[in-house]
Backbone:
């Protein structure tokens, strides 16, 4: 019984996680980064949600769209499998910054691709953008947010994808119908660039030790 009492006393007390409002106040830079990723995921999902429009604009059909979607997913696999083996000379935040830049470069490559073969080639940029971000965002969140709020930080980070997808559907659907594919995709590039700048600014915060 004495041992049990000692064991109970030595057990660390888990801190209560912050409310959402407190979390935002305590992690302003991280939340700024998340705001930037919402904007990034608008452009990311303007591609993903309306891929058939891009394919048809290049002379393809639904069969080609299926191949493009499969190829895009395949390019993500190496990053997801070997993320733990990324060179250690760069910190997690540096890889996150790299992925944020590649989000915009990726959309630019999609917008400028003049034919199906080059559009396929452009899809390889999914690896250093979306795939790299996805596999490292949890590690990054843990490095800048107090441990008691790690779960909330991770949940918010992945929620940005959903918010971006909803906004992309609202914005992209109307634009593809009225402005055309090329104009819409170039607009997506501009949106992505804004998101990249904001998200990059948010990564310049003091890391938790």
Residues:
């Amino acid at each position: 019984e004495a041992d049990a009492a000692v064991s109970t006393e030595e057990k660390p007390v888990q801190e209560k996680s912050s409310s959402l409002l407190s979390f935002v106040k305590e992690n302003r830079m991280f939340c700024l980064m998340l705001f930037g990723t919402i904007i990034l995921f608008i452009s990311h999902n303007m591609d993903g949600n309306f891929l058939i429009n891009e394919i048809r604009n290049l002379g393809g059909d639904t069969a080609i769209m299926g191949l493009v979607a499969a190829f895009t997913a395949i390019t993500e696999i190496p990053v997801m499998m070997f993320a733990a083996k990324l060179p250690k000379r760069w910190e997690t935040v540096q890889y996150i910054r790299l992925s944020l830049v590649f989000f915009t470069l990726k959309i630019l490559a999609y917008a400028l691709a003049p034919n199906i073969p080059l559009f396929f080639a452009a899809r390889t940029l999914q690896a250093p953008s979306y795939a790299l971000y996805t596999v490292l965002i949890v590690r990054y969140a843990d490095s800048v947010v107090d441990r008691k709020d790690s779960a909330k930080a991770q949940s918010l980070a992945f929620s940005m994808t959903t918010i971006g997808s909803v906004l992309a559907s609202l914005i992209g659907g109307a634009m593809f119908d009225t402005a055309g594919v090329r104009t819409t995709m170039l607009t997506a590039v501009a949106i992505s660039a804004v998101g990249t700048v904001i998200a990059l600014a948010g990564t310049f915060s003091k890391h938790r030790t």
Remarks:
- Confidence is low (pLDDT under 50) at residues 4-9.
- Residues 150-178 form the longest helix (29 residues).
- Residues 100 and 196 are 6 Å apart (CA to CA).
- The radius of gyration is 20 Å.
